[in-house]
Structure formats: structure tokens, C-alpha cells
User: Fold these one by one.
Assistant:
Number 1:
Amino acid sequence: MQFDSLSNFIRDKDAVPQKGPIAVVVVEDDIEVDTTLRHHQQAGFKQVIAFMPKRFKLARDLSETLIRIDFDTSAPDALETAVNGVIVAVPAGTWMYYCYNAEFLFHPFCETRSVGEMLTFHTEERRDAMLTYVVDLYADDLWSCPNAVSLDRAHLDRSGYYALARPDEKGHPKERQLNFYGGLRWRFEEHVPEVRRKIDRISLFKAKPGLKLRNDHTFNDEEYNTYACEWHHNLTAAICSFRTAKALKLNPGSTYDIETFKWHNSAPFEWHSRQLLDLGLMEPGQWF
């Protein structure tokens, strides 16, 4: 199903999904688009909505099974516009997720349990949102993979992650909120604006009236931005992403300064949740 604009999609009440979880994928370029969309279909999302430039092509099976919206993803605040538009359109209480192309959601035990099963448990714990960490992926050889993307040769950092208190307007730490850092944005921070160095996103959340995603990957409801409830640790998930590696290698301001992303703490990515759990890059909480 294809729409030529977000507004036309919102107006078509028959097309708007009435049941979640729903994945929103913002396609910035033509790298691993089909792979990203299929990954999230297979993760168990009831519907995948792709926001993408009209010039990009989709495989036939995807064109027949997802919602495509023609969209200028290079426009300012494109992600927030897309996500907030879908929030307005879907029924209140619908679980949603968002990411870019060449990003892949992993959650605890995702090899045997669907994202819907995880969110059912998360709902039972009276949580309306879930923290996700963006874990940078990168090819091990930038000569053979000049855009830094390789599914077969993907690597990640196994250490170097840390958190700092998130201050409020008066400089006091916010309750149950932290800013998380690490990966390529930390190692190559001289090429990354300070406001873009965080690796935390609230990528899984329940839609509700008045909810808005802000341009720092947080919401206007502060409880949505917390990493856990008041009484125990909650589930978290990871988005394994080539996006930062792509940007650093394709940006003229940084590409010539970077010969490789590998360092002594690089490890091959195993495409399995167990590796991410063992590295502490996501948390199973009370879900066993």
C-alpha cells in the first residue's frame, strides 16, 4: 500500500493500522533498505510503515506487505514529523517503534520470542515506553566496504559505554533518566556534534493523545524517558545500527581521517541477542 504524502495516509482511516506493534522506518538512503524492512517484519511487528523518497525502489514482496509513504527524509526534523504523524493517526495505546534504514532491533530472547510477546510483558509491568541503546555496527575493512556497511563482516565495540546524569532546567539530575554514550560517537567525538553523541533512544512506546517525539530522541512526557520503573529494573532493547559508521565514512569532513573503525575492543557481531545480553547492551529485567 503506497501513499504520496503523510497527510493522505492520516486521512485514510481504512489504511491506518488499528493494532500494534507498528514499526516506522525512515529511509535516508538506499543502503540495506529491504534487509531492514524484512528484519522488522520477521521480528513480529503487525505492520511496518516505510517513509522513503519516491525515487527509491522496493522489492515486490515488501511493496505488497507494508505501507509505503513518499517522504523527503532529508528535510529538517523528518524523523520527528514522521513519527509524530503516525502517533496522531493510530489508536491510543498502540505500541510503536521507530528506526532508520540499516538499523536492526534486537530484544532479549528475540530468536524465540516476538516483539509483541515482549511488549505484552512490558505492559503488564505498567510501562508505556522502553529504553533502547543504539549499538554501532561497522565493517572491519573500509577498503572493501567503503560505505562502512557489511552484514557479513559487521563488528561492534564490546566496551567503552558509560552513562551520565541527565540534568533538568535547574541543573539537577532527573529521576531515573541518564544520558548514555559509547561506540563510534564516543571514539570519534571530534566529528560528532555534542548534541548528537548520545546513544539512547526511547524507540518503543505507546501512542497517546498529545504525545510528541522531540529531536533528541526523548518525549514530552518525562515518564516515557525513564530507563526503569521505581521498584525494579525493566526490559531494555538494542538497535544495532550502521548509521553512524555510514555518516562518518561518507562525510567529507571525517572520511579522510578514518582508515578503520576497528580497535582492540572490536568484536565480530554475531547477530544474536545473547551477545548483546552478555555485553550488557540490553537488560532482560524480570523477563526470563
Number 2:
Amino acid sequence: MLFSSSIFLFLFLPLVLLIYYLPLGRFRQGQNVFVLLASLGFYAWGEPWFVLVMMGSIVVNYGFGLWVDHNQRHNHSARMPVILALVVNLGILFVFKYLTFTLGILNDLGAHFVIPGIELPIGISFFTFQALSYVLDIQRGHGQVQRSPLKVGLYISFFPQLIAGPIVKYETVADQIDHRKENWEDFSSGCARFVVGLGKKVLLANQLALVADRAFQLGGMGQLTTGFAWLGSLCYTLQIYYDFSGYSDMAIGLGKMFGFHFLENFNYPYISRSVTEFWRRWHISLSTWFRDYVYFPLGGSRVNSKGKHIRNLFVVWLLTGIWHGANWTFIVWGLFYFVLLMLEKYGHLGRGWPAVCQWLFTFLMVNFAWVLFRADSLGAAAQVLKAMFGLGAGLWSSETGLYLRENWTVLLAGALFAAPVAACLRERTNRCRSVLLAVGYGLLAAAIFLVSASFIIKGTYNPFIYFNF
């Protein structure tokens, strides 16, 4: 079930909120059980069989959490349950996401495995990382073990961030499961945040996707001009930002409606002046997950040699690429960022440059990286990159002009709001405390919702990029 679908907006969400606040408003345990059941139903709507995989993940990680807690309370090592939790969780992820890719590689090397047809459960990378966070945070003493499997289930399956993040670490919400406090301020703020995310998704990302998809289609056929290559890559760069940050906005807003407070997942990444800064602003929940559970345990930057630090960064960025998908494009994408970060940290790349040059270089590198990320194969990515450097089917085409004329307003709006323009306006509005401005903001939010809803009802193109992960 998509957040940007009529069934979610006009049936599922209103019904869940009504039951949550009216008959169950003063009964926390009842609210938790109800939201858990609603979350399982939300997932089962599109994945009726794969909900069993998630329920299995809940049960086994509930058991691992109890095992870790038992060993720690009795002064025994928690090493064994933690290792088994890693093996089981990553094993499940490997089977569903990477087995066919691995068997294909082995067959290319001369093996003769029969490659099974395995469907990928939506959001398996997200809920697997959350399940691991539960066990690891108990082991680190960053959260109390849950004696009730229903509460573990609520943490892992909570529908706002279940299938495309943000990845919520257990320590962030451990206390909120029983002790969150709903109020009108949070609820109204959550509604506004949800509407902003919906607008990002429906009014910007979906429209930009039409141009990007056409460009990469032409690239695969070797018919991409230089102009369309740049137009398509820029549209995809903006599309993936508004698609994913829009989903994160909706997830954070929904969380607030139920009294949960999730950490931010995006902070205007396209204003970054270095790749290091970009990854502090982009998909923050994934970056912090790898930092806390992989990079720091390996020693981080506090190791006794440059070689070990480079190894640690290599492992993190290799895993970051692999996490995103079973394709060489994602692996090369992750390693491309590893190389850029090494050049920044040890080659002083960009240091001392004028600010505008630092920003332009960073943006171009991110744009090139998104071409790798979007392409179906390394060969397809090479076709698009070649066209961007003038080695395609000419410099310009009438189709390029047509797509640009039809979409320049969306492209301009996307570029404008990728900078903190809206945040500055919102801050000034809050400082003014004007009733007129508050009413105007409410009317604007209502207009965004109505226009977005009209697009949804008409059944326009409505993909979600990160559902694939």
C-alpha cells in the first residue's frame, strides 16, 4: 500500500486514526496492539505471503533480545546470540535479495547452478536493519529488552517507516513504545509534514520521473543526445531526492500523529560543498546505522594506521552499495563514493577552492553517481555518461526541446526547493506569529493536499524508488 494512494489516504489512515484516538485513546496497550495489527495489515495488503517473513523476523529477534539480556544479567558473554542474530538476519536478507545475483556470478565463472525465481519482499532491507538494531542496542545497553513480543513487533513493523524508512534505531524509540505522549501540536505538525511529503512525491518526483525514465530508455537504445542526457540525469537527481525525502517526510509526519518522534533523514543534501557533507545530509538514518554498527566497531578513524582507516571506509561503502541492491551498478556506486571520500580525506580534494566551485564539483559528482544508481547495468550507465560528455547521438533533438518546454516549471521548482528556501520562509513565519500568515500556511497545505489528491485519483504515474530496497 502506497502512502500516495487513494486507499491509504481516504480509507486506511482515517480509519486507523479514528480507532486509535476514540475507543483506544486512554488504553496504551490496546493502542500498541491495534497499531501492530494495522501495520501487519498494511504490509500484507501488497505482500500477503511475505508478511510471514516479517513476522518470522519479529519472533526470532524477540528471542535473540531475550537471550542477550539473559546473558548480560548473568554476567555471561552476549557474543553468541549477537553472532547468531547477525547470521540469521543477514542470511534471510541474502536469500531474498542476493542469492540469485550470487548464483548468476558463479555461473558466469563456470558453475551450473539453477537460478530460482525469488521475489523480493518490499522493504526487507529496512525492517532487517531495524530488527538488528533491536538486538544490538540491547547488547550495547542503549535500550531495555522488551518482554512482550507484541512490542518488538510494533517497533519492527510500525507502518509509517516500515517499507522505505527512515531506519529507526531501537534506542531512538525504545521509551516511546510505552511512554509517548500525543498532543494536538504534534498531530497538526505531523499532518502538515505529511502533506509536504505528499506534495514532494506527487507534484515533483512523479513528474520528474517521466523525463528521467525517457532519458534512460533512450540511453539503453543508444539514441540519447547530450542535451537529453543532462536533462534526464538532472531530473533523476531531483526525482530521487523528492521521492525519498518526500516519503521520509510522510513517515515522520505519520509518526508524530501517533506520538512517535523519528530523527530527520534529509537535510538539504544538494547544497553540500563536499561529498563528506553530502553524506551527512543524505539518508541520514542509513549513514548513522553503518557508522554505529559497522564503522565504529571496526575502529572508525581512531585506528593506529591510515591503512586500517581506509579499510574501514572501504568496508562501509562496499556494504552501502550492496545494501541498495543486487547489481554491479550499486556496488560500483558505493565504491565511487569511497574513492571520492578518500580523495577528500587524504588527497585534500576541494580544499581551498572557492565555495561555488566546491558546491559545483560536489553536485556534479553526485549527479554522475546517480546515473550509475539509476541505470539497469554498467553498460547502460556508460551509454548515458558517454552522451553527457558529447559522445551520444548528437547534441540536441526536438524531443529534448519538447520535454524541456513541458517540464521546465517542475524542474525549476525542484531546483528551488532543494535549497532551504521553504525552511527560511517557515522560520520567518514562525517568528512573525501572524494569524494571517498561519492561515495562509494552512490554506497552502490544503491546496497542496487537494492538488496531490487530484493527481492520485486520476491515476498518474506513481512509483516509489526505495520500495525496491
